[in-house]
């Protein structure tokens, strides 16, 4: 039987892996085309959003090449993921919603913002070595994946929907 500390560290590693599958958002390692600006022609918002979601998933994977083995390592990785997620949210929010999908797009962005909040909770739990709080953040992030998938589909964001399902292939 694993000790409480060993189970907590295992939960930490599992949460970081889970968050990678959720897609998060953009980041310093993300090449979104022309620096910090995204130029999108009318009617191409869904293409740009899908590209951002896929690039974010790749950035999340890159940030987690090595699994953390301690809470402090987990907190460092989570801080990087939070930065990636926040920048991605900014890029997505700068887009005009796809035609006829403004409400679904808004709700999808809101749901992705909730992932950022879970990342922050997980980071704080890792910093205080609170395995129970870490596990709660992991479960809440997992529970939201299905809803984010549905919202991405409703918004016409097929690439983002794939990311929410843990697939970021193009």
Describe this structure in words.
- There is one protein chain.
- The protein has 170 residues and is mainly alpha-helical.
- It has one domain.
- It is 69% helix and 0% strand.
- The protein has helices at 4-22, 45-63, 71-93, 102-127, 131-154, 158-164.
- α2 runs parallel beside α6.
- The longest helix is centred in the C-terminal third of the chain and has 26 residues, at 102-127.
Termini, distance in Å?
A: 42 Å
So how many helices?
6
Q: Main sheet, how many strands, which sense, barrel?
A: none
Instruction: Supply the number of structural domains.
Output: 1
State mean pLDDT (0 to 100 scale). 78
Whole-number radius of gyration? 16 Å
SS-based class: mainly alpha
Order of SSEs, N→C? Answer: HHHHHH
Low-confidence stretches: 9-39
Structure in a nutshell:
This protein is mainly α and 170 residues long. 69% of the residues lie in helices and 0% in strands. Helix 1 packs parallel to helix 3 and helix 1 runs antiparallel to helix 4 (102-127).
List the helices and strands and how they pair.
Layout lengths: L3 H19 L22 H19 L7 H23 L8 H26 L3 H24 L3 H7 L6
Helix pairs in contact: 1-3, 1-4, 1-5, 2-3, 2-6, 3-4, 4-5, 5-6
């Amino acid at each position: 039987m694993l000790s409480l500390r060993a189970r907590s560290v295992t939960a930490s590693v599992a949460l970081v892996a889970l968050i990678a599958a959720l897609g998060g958002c953009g980041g310093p390692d993300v090449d979104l085309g022309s620096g910090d600006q995204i130029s999108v022609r009318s009617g191409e918002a869904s293409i740009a959003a899908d590209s951002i979601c896929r690039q974010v998933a790749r950035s999340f994977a890159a940030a987690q090449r090595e699994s953390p083995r301690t809470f402090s390592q987990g907190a460092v990785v989570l801080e990087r993921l939070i930065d990636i997620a926040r920048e991605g949210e900014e890029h997505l929010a700068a887009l005009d919603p796809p035609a006829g999908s403004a409400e679904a797009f808004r709700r999808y962005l809101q749901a992705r913002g909730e992932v950022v909040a879970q990342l922050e909770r997980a980071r704080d739990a890792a910093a205080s070595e609170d395995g129970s709080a870490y596990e709660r953040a992991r479960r809440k992030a997992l529970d939201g994946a299905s809803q984010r998938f549905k919202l991405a589909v409703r918004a016409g964001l097929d690439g983002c929907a794939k990311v929410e399902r843990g697939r970021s292939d193009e």
